[in-house]
Specification:
The chain is mainly α. It is built from nine helices and no strands.
Length: about 260
């Protein structure tokens, strides 16, 4: 018997133009932009790799980057819906965490698909940021609504997700605006690592404010007495980061040279 793999009788032949998964995956490795210098450990070491796998699969399925963004949104907002309409339980927590982690991986994949197909568009970047902006505020609010509906905790605990929603919105907007203003005046982006650097210690240090860790934490939803202290710690760590980062970014913005405008003739 020949060592070559035999085709299954009646199975459709593979189209010649359809790229192999390994080839697409390898090409993504060349097209993938450098990890953000401040990226926490889960986002850097796990989510980017999951996103790369999903991006390769999405490309082979013929999905556009906007379609991948839509898949991410559906998964994430499905998790938020479960938080609102299901009482806290271990199965509900596992389902929410799984949907959120998949949504986060697809969120990483959309940009990779865009780069693989020749670069993203302003509309695609806009859509991606809008979905991110909505989910950062909606997810804590959905948690607060669900906990309230099922009377799962003392009402003072509801202040944690409510405050976290506001903090997350401020952080997301401040990060996006700061980066855009840097680009506007021609300042090199600080998002990527410098050559030869690998700030793994920083990635571990900022792990408590990693969105991926927040997603994993919902596994504990079946035991609110355990989940809420963990969630509160994540919210407090994120708040602390915001309080330290905002003055630093403001000083940086003051130091940026303003763009020169043409004088009237």
């Amino acid at each position: 018997m020949s060592g070559r793999r035999r085709e299954v009788a009646g199975a459709p032949s593979r189209p010649e133009h359809l790229p192999h998964f390994r080839a697409v995956y390898a090409q993504l490795g060349e097209a993938q932009k450098a990890a953000a210098r401040s990226a926490p450990a889960y986002s850097r070491f796990i989510n980017r790799r999951l996103g790369r796998v999903l991006a390769a699969a999405a490309f082979m399925w013929g999905l556009s980057s906007n379609a991948v963004t839509a898949v991410s949104a559906v998964l994430t907002f499905s998790a938020a819906t479960l938080l609102i309409f299901l009482p806290p339980s271990w199965p509900a927590g596992a389902a929410v965490a799984t949907l959120l982690l998949l949504g986060y991986a697809f969120d990483s994949a959309d940009g990779q698909v865009a780069r693989l197909t020749g670069g993203g568009s302003p509309a695609g970047e806009w859509l991606d940021h809008i979905v991110d902006a909505v989910k950062t505020s909606a997810l804590p609010l959905a948690l607060a609504v669900g906990l309230y509906r099922f009377n799962a905790v003392e009402h003072y605990w509801l202040l944690v997700p409510l405050a976290f929603s506001a903090v997350s919105a401020v952080l997301f907007f401040a990060m996006i605006l700061t980066e855009q203003l840097r680009r506007q005046v021609g300042t090199p982006s600080r998002a990527a690592d410098l050559p030869g650097r690998f700030p793994w210690l920083r990635s571990v240090f900022v792990l408590p404010m990693d969105y991926g860790v927040q997603c994993v934490a919902f596994v504990l939803l079946g035991n609110p007495a355990l989940f809420l202290p963990v969630y509160t710690f994540i919210a407090a760590a994120t708040t602390g980061f915001v309080l330290l980062a905002l003055p630093k970014w403001f000083r940086e913005m003051k130091a940026l040279a303003p763009r020169k405008t043409a004088t009237a003739m």
